[in-house]
Amino acid sequence: MKSAACALFVLLSTGADAAAPAVVASIKPLQLIAAAVTDGVSTPLLAVGAGQDPHHLSLRPSERRALQQSALVLWVGPVLEVPLVDVITELDARVVTAQQLPGMRLGTIEGATDPHLWLDSNNARLIAAALASELQQLDPANAERYRANAVQFASALTELDTELAKTLQPLQAQPWAVSHDAFRYFTRQHGLQAPLTLTDSSNNTPGVRSVVALREQLAAQHIQCLMTEPTENHQQLDTLLSGSAITIVSADVLGVKIEPAADAYPQLLRQLAAALQHCMGESDE
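^ thats the sequence. predicted structure below, dont judge the formating
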């Protein structure tokens, strides 16, 4: 890390004996993973407003300052947070680019890398391990805590994988649809059917001809479940699907309302699994 970042250590919280390096995550899911690694030492900051669409984010002056004053930045990479590319390259901080980590299980959408890589728990393990490694070098006083936290996080994800496999197994044969295809990593990991997608990879809504074709596909495949995201225009979806007997359920793939904590990331995946159960009519509630 360059000298400016070396000098910048911010005491963020939680009773650490010495000031801890400021960790900044670009988007909420990465903040939740980072929170598991820094638990008991500091609370990672969020560079971009939690409600922003990461595909089309914009930085406020305060968010730009948070990045510039960080010791370590965690982001997905240029495949997702395009507006951050120039900012990231100018930072003095250490940078962990998730999409470039060795061993990442990357998928594709229309020939390009699928950026929603945090929805595969195997990728989350790798991100946490890489972050812990960087922090052990930046903050030797808390190195053992970071290492232990990463080990504990990996163990918690192993238990979560077993839990979700049991939860989602009854759903594997069911057809479903998504308005925006952000679920591929989760779908692949848990053996779910590939969903019918109502919008393209740029999140553009279909034209009139496409609407007719989509309605025909929904009927032909007997799809009764549509998963959406909280930021989407549900009124527009209601119009699109007018006359269809389909259950629309919102699933927050960004974990916008989840507070950073050691167990926050598993909570994100559990909420997604519960939303799928509800949408497909398999919920125990």
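The longest strand covers residues 72-75.
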